[in-house]
């Protein structure tokens, strides 16, 4: 660790002192972020391994800024790449281990490239401002922050690869017993990342991120040819949380039963009306409807819809709902949180942020790209290997002061269905993913992909499984239709993709009762039934 940090620091200051082109400005800020990653990927089906790989790779991200904190080379806060530098690379592979010469060579090449790109961006930005006679509204482009020092030894985490291979082979073979299954697999993916960060302000940080995930997937064909799927997955940061074999065995039995029910379920026609969203679905709802729209860089780019710009102090949610983001939380209800980190990817200490308090917008997720009225980062700049860090969610927490038991929430749902004169309502019990568009040149909308949805009869309360649907909405309208929440908070760990790449996040949310949710037909995959049975059922 000391060799890596020392090498990074020496090369950083060598470039900072000497890197310049004649008659052009030198950098006012440089930083390096080195990642050394240990990956294990295992997946298999029907008792065989289809992948079983372990790897170690390293890469470096470099940031070079020209100008000053008041006016630098970044455009739109760095959210979008400059069209003249689309061929840019912010990250290149570097040697694993402590090879000093290889690391120096990598830093030399990358810094030279980033300096030249920064110069082009700087002059283009000045030219654009003169041409359009723009007024530079913010006092700063790049926030002024105190340096952070946190140098820790980062031991490599040894994954139990042999045990995991045996587990995948053993439990993937159990699916041979089920004729209802057309396809299935079990996968285990683990990653241990060592991060080293230095900058010319004096920051020196070593930190570590770990994630371990297991996923079980089963697929079958409904009578109408629609491909139906049930899956279970979890991601955690500690080896001790890996599920026991008896849990995995029971989980397989459960999702097989659910698949059989789903194959027989009716397809839900397009619908708009009241619904209950369980925590996994409500977490996606909040994440997509408002979470991404509270990321600071989206307020700086003219290409963004800027949904909540200028709305600090305004009511954006029902008054019983508050929203926080806390990267310093390590666990919730005894379960680890994937969004935990002590320092962000700009070397800023992580902070808990109150985004919405009693329905009122209070703050945004901030990196060092300065947003109007906010001159400091709150430690939320994040990125994957080759992307520029921007403000992103970490542990995204929804808290309500209007909580009810699930039985009461369902009773309220039945009343709402009757009051609206609807034939039925919905209960969305599980959802696996979502997406949104924040660009102003497109529709300001979001959607979620539920995996378990029930139609509810208002008279009897009877629940009937349905399939082939997804929820959609526009953010400002949808979030105002929340009537109440449950008291059943749950955490969901996942990976979120955006402009700065895929990052680890967690959402903690209760179930919600919503006055109206819009459901549309999901994109269907229709297949022809297989002609022959699987090999293990053949008699000849």
Secondary structure layout plus pairing:
Layout: H1 2-18, E1 27-45, E2 48-66, E3 91-94, H2 100-132, E4 149-150, H3 161-172, E5 183-199, E6 204-221, E7 227-236, H4 245-264, E8 266-267, E9 271-277, H5 279-291, E10 321-325, E11 331-332, E12 335-336, E13 353-357, E14 360-361, E15 381-382, E16 390-391, E17 395-400, E18 403-404, H6 406-419, E19 425-437, E20 445-456, E21 463-467, E22 469-473, H7 475-478, E23 482-486, E24 490-498, E25 501-509, E26 512-521
Parallel strand pairs: 4-6, 8-21, 9-19, 17-25, 18-23
Antiparallel strand pairs: 1-2, 1-5, 2-3, 5-6, 6-7, 9-26, 10-13, 10-17, 11-12, 13-14, 15-16, 19-20, 20-21, 20-22, 22-26, 23-26, 24-25
Binned strand content? 35-45%
Radius of gyration: 25 Å
Measured as a percent range, the helix fraction is: 10-25%
Question: What's the total count of β strands?
Answer: 26
Can you describe this structure?
By secondary structure, the protein is of the alpha+beta class. The chain is built from 7 helices and 26 strands. The strands form 5 sheets. Strands 1, 2, 3, 4, 5, 6 and 7 form a 7-stranded mixed sheet that branches. Strands 14-13-10-17-25-24 form a 6-stranded mixed sheet. It has a 5-stranded mixed beta barrel with strand order 9-19-20-22-26. A hairpin with a 4-residue loop joins strand 5 (183-199) and strand 6. Helix 1 crosses helix 2. The longest helix is centred in the N-terminal third of the chain and has 33 residues, at 100-132.
């Amino acid at each position: 660790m000391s060799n890596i940090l020392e090498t990074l620091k020496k090369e950083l200051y060598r470039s900072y002192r000497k890197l310049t082109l004649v008659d052009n400005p030198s950098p006012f800020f440089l930083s390096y972020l080195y990642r050394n990653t240990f990956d294990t990927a295992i997946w298999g089906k029907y008792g065989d391994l289809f992948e079983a790989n372990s790897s170690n790779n390293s890469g470096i991200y470099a940031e070079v800024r020209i100008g000053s904190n008041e006016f630098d080379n970044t455009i739109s806060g760095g959210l979008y790449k400059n069209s003249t530098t689309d061929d840019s690379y912010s990250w290149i592979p570097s040697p694993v281990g402590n090879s000093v010469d290889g690391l120096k060579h990598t830093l030399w090449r990358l810094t030279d490239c980033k300096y030249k790109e920064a110069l082009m961006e700087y002059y283009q930005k000045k030219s654009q401002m003169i041409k359009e006679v723009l007024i530079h509204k913010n006092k700063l482009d790049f926030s002024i922050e105190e340096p952070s020092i946190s140098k820790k030894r980062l031991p490599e985490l040894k994954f139990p690869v042999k045990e995991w291979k045996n587990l995948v082979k053993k439990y993937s073979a159990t699916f041979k017993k089920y004729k209802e299954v057309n396809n299935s697999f079990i996968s285990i993916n683990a990653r241990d990342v060592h991060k080293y960060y230095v900058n010319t302000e004096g920051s020196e940080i070593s930190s570590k991120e770990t994630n371990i995930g297991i996923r079980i997937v089963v697929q079958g064909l409904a009578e109408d040819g629609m491909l139906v799927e049930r899956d279970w997955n979890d991601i955690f940061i500690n080896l001790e949380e890996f599920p026991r074999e008896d849990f995995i065995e029971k989980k397989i039995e459960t999702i097989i039963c659910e698949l059989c029910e789903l194959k027989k379920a009716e397809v839900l026609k397009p619908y708009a009306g009241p619904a209950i969203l369980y925590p996994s679905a409500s977490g996606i709802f909040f994440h997509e409807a408002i979470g991404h729209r509270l990321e600071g860089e989206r307020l700086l780019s003219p290409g963004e819809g800027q949904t909540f710009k200028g709305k600090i102090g305004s009511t954006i949610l029902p008054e019983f709902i508050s929203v926080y983001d806390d990267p310093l939380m390590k666990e919730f209800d005894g379960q680890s949180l994937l969004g935990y980190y002590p320092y962000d990817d700009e070397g800023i200490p992580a902070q808990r942020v109150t985004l919405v308090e009693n329905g009122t917008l209070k703050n945004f997720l901030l990196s060092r790209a300065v947003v109007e009225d906010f001159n400091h980062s709150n430690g939320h700049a994040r990125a994957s290997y080759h992307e520029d860090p921007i403000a992103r969610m970490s542990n995204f927490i929804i808290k309500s002061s209007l909580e009810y038991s699930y039985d009461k929430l369902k009773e309220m749902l039945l009343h709402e269905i009757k009051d609206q004169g609807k034939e039925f309502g919905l209960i969305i019990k599980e959802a696996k993913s979502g997406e949104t568009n924040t660009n102003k040149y497109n529709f300001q909308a979001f959607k979620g992909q539920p995996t378990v949805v029930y139609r509810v009869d208002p008279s009897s309360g009877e629940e009937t499984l349905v399939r082939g649907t997804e929820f959609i909405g526009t953010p400002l309208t949808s979030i105002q239709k929340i009537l109440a929440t449950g008291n059943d908070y749950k955490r969901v760990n996942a990976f979120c993709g955006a402009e700065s790449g895929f990052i680890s996040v967690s959402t903690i949310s209760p179930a919600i009762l919503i006055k109206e949710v819009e459901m549309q037909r999901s994109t269907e995959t229709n297949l022809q039934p297989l002609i022959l049975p699987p090999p293990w059922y053949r008699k000849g």
